[in-house]
Amino acid sequence: MHSSVVLLAFLAFLHATSAWQGGVPVQVQPPKGPVNQAGVTFGTCANNPPSPQEAVGLIKSLHAQKVRLYAPDINILQALRNTGIEVVLGVPNEEVQNIGTSQDKANQWIQNYVKNFQDINFRYIVVGNGISSLNEHNGQYAQCLIQAMQNIQNAINACGLQNKVKVSTALDHSIVLNQIHPPSNAVFNPAIKQNFIFPVLQFLKNNNAPFLINLHPYYSYAFNKPEVPLELNQGQSQSNRDIRLEYANFRSASFLVQDGQLKYQNVFDAMVDSVYVALEKAGASSLDVVVAETGWPTCGGTAADANNAGTFNNNLISHIKRTGTPKRPQNCVETYIYNLIDEDKRGKELEAHWGIFDQNKQARYPISFWSPSDQ
After folding, report:
1. Strand 86-91 vs strand 121-129: parallel, antiparallel, or unpaired?
2. Catalytic residues
3. 348 burial class (0-12, 13-18, 19+ CB within 10 angstroms)?
4. Which residues make Cβ contacts (< 8 Å) with residue 148, sequence separation at least 6?
5. Which residues contact 225 (CB under 8 A, 6 or more apart)?
6. What is the pLDDT of residues 237-252, one digit of tens each?
7. pTM for this structure?
């Protein structure tokens, strides 16, 4: 009899606190406490993505309160209505040229995906992702990016939303920055600085918008880039320790890299500080930095497994709750973890397995964007 009472009480607790969507427990009410600086991206380049309702259920099950969408989808936006989840909405690269050449098309885009969804808390409109004239996949859009950003800004202004929704673009750390190790050496790539980076920075300063950057410590580690120095593992031949990996996924207990007076325990902070340094040198130190995409794969490459991915992402969430970077310790860095689900249409094995969930909506490792300490 006693066990039955306990079971009934437990079921009542589940009913009061959770709902079930697609076999996933979903938190109905957002957890109490401060809004976490961590969000999650939701890319849908998959053969069998979850339904919009299931995807929002997965986001809620993580207690994530921010999501980045790379492109608008009416059904996904419908599912996000009245959830309280902050939404970063992308203008896809292939739409940048049309929007950059037509104010009417920019106005219609904002009407369709922002004004028609006034019960969604939009945070940023991100015009283009990783666009650069140096990028062979999207270089053709670089010349119209600024005008597309301006046209979207004009449309936002016309709605009176300029103080609520900021317009930016997401650039790739590995393309737009040079000499990032140590961070104090970082500069914007001189090949695109004058004609591309400076106009972007001026737009962001004019509109009090943040600088969004995609950066990936995983690639720095796996591809032996200078920011995760090979010499960190010197003298470890008789040990199983991989100090470079510890530096890459927040597991180092000590400072491993020194840059003047600043000391670094993890490469994420060093990479973000390289952005701060480049902004300072470009006269844009007032801009906030948002990491628009980062993460760790679970398959397909060196150290790509669920354990390392879970370690990186959980440690990242914990880290950006507590502190900023050595250069700006008071600025907790708003960061979006890539990705909600695996995207098997990415082609290459390494690119297809960055999801927190697989396509069957099963979590690849335990993770939560909220903990009891957030109360």
Report:
1. parallel
2. 293, 343, 345, 351
3. exposed
4. 91, 96, 97, 99, 100, 106, 127, 128
5. 181, 219
6. 656 789 999 999 999 9
7. 0.90
